[in-house]
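notes to self, project folder thing:

trying the whole complex as one job this time. last attempt i did each chain seperately and stitching them together was a nightmare. two parts in total, labels are on each line so i dont mix them up again. if this works i'll redo the older ones the same way
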Amino acid sequence: MKKTVDDRLAALRGSAKRLDYNARSLAALENNPRCTLRALLDASGSDKTAIATHVGHPPSFGQSSFAITRGNAFEAMVKDNGCAELLRVLRETLHLTLPEVGYEDLNDVGGDGRSKERHERTEEVLLRAARGEGDGTLFDHPMLRLLIGGHKAYLEPDLVALRIDGRFHIVEIKSFPIIDEQADSTQVRAATTQACAYIIALRDLLGRAGIGEQAVSDTIVLVAPKDFTNRPTGAFVDARKQVAALTRQLSRIERIGDLVDLLPEDLTFDLAPDAEDRPRRPAEELTEALDRVLVTYRPDCLNHCEMAFYCRSRARAEASLDVLGPVVREQFGGIDTTTMVMGLARGELTPSEDQVEMAAALRHAARLRAELEDLGGAA
Amino acid sequence: MSRLYLESQEESGKLWNSGNVWYMSDPLDALEKSIGTLRRAIRDAAAAGDTERAGELRMQLRRAERAWDALVDAGEPAAAPPPTVPEAAPAARGSQLPAREHVHRALMLLGAPAAPKLIVGVHEAFFPGELSASKLSSLRRDEERSYRSSPGARPYYLCPALAHDLLTPVRALITISTWTLEQRVIGPLSPRVDFLTSAIGIAEAVHTAAESTADGPSPEALRLLWRFAVNIPDAMPRNAAGHEGALDAQQVIGAAQAELDVHTDADRATRAEAARQARKSLGDDEQLFGAPLRGVTHLRSARA
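result (full assembly):
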C-alpha cells in the first residue's frame, strides 16, 4: 500500500530530482497545515520555486544576499574567539557555570562536510554528552536528521547548548534586534518554528539511544542583537505549543495517501525539462494541473511558501476572502467571496437561511457607512 | 623596493641575513624559550622513566636546536640586542616586514592559537604595517608548501592547530611550529583557555604600551582589550553607580587568570593526551600540518 503512495508522489513530481524537506518546508507544515497543494508538493519533493516561476509567479523572498550576509556575519561575531560573546549571553540566560565552556565543532568531520558523515559524528558526540561524558557544552552546527514520510531530511541548528543538569537547549542565532526586550513577533515565530524541527530531530536522535524526550528542553534560546547595538543578548522562547503542532503534522504526513487518493490518476506537476533544464511543458497546462488541487491561501503564506504569489493571484481572481486573512475570513463564516459579501450588504442577493444573520449585520454596516459618507459630503 | 627584496629573500629560504637582524629577535627568543621548555620536559620524562616520550622530545629538541643554529649562523646576533617590546621597533622598518613575520609577532603576543581575524586585529592594534586576512590565507598555503619542499629550512612555520581527537588540522586557527604540540592541539576547553590566554597577552601589551610609550596604547588596542574584557567575568571595572568605568589592564589580567585557573587542569590533561597520541601516530610533517583530512583521503588514494 505504502509503495503505491510513493509511486503516486513520484508521478506528481515527474522527472525532476526529489527535493528533501528542509527547515523551511517543515516550518510551512506547521504554519498552514490545511493547504493540500503545499502538502502534495512538499511530500512529493517537487521544486516549488521552479513550478511557481514557470506559471508566472516567481517567489521573491528569501533571496536577499544582504540579509544572508548580515545573518552570517552576526553569527560569526557571536562565535568568534572561542564563542566569547555567546558564553557571556548563555551564562546570563542559561546560567552556565564557569567550568561549562567545552566547545565541539561539528561543522565538518576532519575536513569532510558531507551530511551523512557529519550526522554520524553529531550522533556520537551528542550521545556521549547526554551520558555525561566529555567536556562538551556548546555544539556548533550539529547535523540532525529526521525521517519524514520515509525520507531523510538533514537539519542544522546554529548551536545546541547543554546545561550541567543535563538538558539540551536549541540556540538560534538571529540578526533581527531585540529592542527593549521586544522583538518582531513574525520573525520570532519563524525562528521558533524552525527550532521546533530541531527539537523534534534531537529528541529523535536521543530517543533511538533510549534517552527520554525530557532531555531536550522545549524552550529555545534566541540570541540576537540587543537594542540598536551589535552586541548579542539572549531570550527564552517557549516553543511547547509549536513543537506539539509540528509533531502532530509530522505524524499526519504518513496519511498523505488519503490526499493522493482524491486526485485524478493522471495529475502531474512535471515541468518536462529539456537537456538544459528549461521547462517544455506549456505553462497553461501546468496551471490547469495546479488548479485541480485545493489551496488554502493565507496572507502569511507569503513569508514561507514559494507558491504564495501564485495562490494569491488565484484567490484574487476568485474574489476569495482568503486574500484578507484569517481574521476577516472568520468574521464571515459561510461566505467565501467578496462579491457575495458586497451583494448581501447592498441587498442585491437574497441570503440563504444560515446567512440571514450575517446579511442583517452587513446591511447595517453598509447603512452606517452611507450615513457617514453623507455627513462627510455635507461638511 | 627593500620590502620586495626582503620577501624574495624569504622565498629562497635565506631569511635572517645582512643588516636586518633586528627582526630576528622574536624567532630566536621563541626558539630559546622552546628549547628550555623541551629540556625541562626531557628531564621530567627521564625522571618518570618514560623513555618513549623522552626520545620523542629529544628529537624535537634537536630540530629546535638545528633551527637555532641556522638562525644564528645566518645572522649576526651579537650585533643586535633584540628589542623586547614590539612597540620599540621603528615604525618605518616595522612596516617592511614580510607578512609571515607580522603573523608571528601577533601570535607571540597572544601566546595561543588564533583565528586570522584576531591576528589581523592584534596586528592593527599594536604593530605598524599592513596585514590583511586575504594575505593570511595565501600565506598558510605557502607555509606548508615551503616546509614540504625543504623541511626545517626556516626557523619556524605557521601551521594550523590540530583537533584533539582526529588530529586533523583545525584550519580556522593558526599556530607557530616552534610551540609544543600541547600548545597547538585544540581540545573542547581549549577555545576558552586560549581566549583567556590571549586576553592576558593583549592586556599585558596594553599595560606595557601605557608604561613605555608617550602616547600610551592605541585606540585600536584599547578597543581590542575591551572586546575581550566584556566577556570575562569581573574584568570590567564598576564605579559606584554600577556603570562600566575605564578599563584597567591589571584587572583584566586578574579576572582572566581567575577563570583560567578553573579550566587549566582539565584542558592541559586533554591536550597532553592528544599530543602524546600525535607523537605516536603522526610523522614529523603531520605533527605540524595535521593528519590527512578524511574527506580528501579517498581522493588521494584514488590518484595514487
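what i see at first glance: Residues 35 and 241 of chain B are 50 Å apart (CA to CA).
need to look closer tmrw
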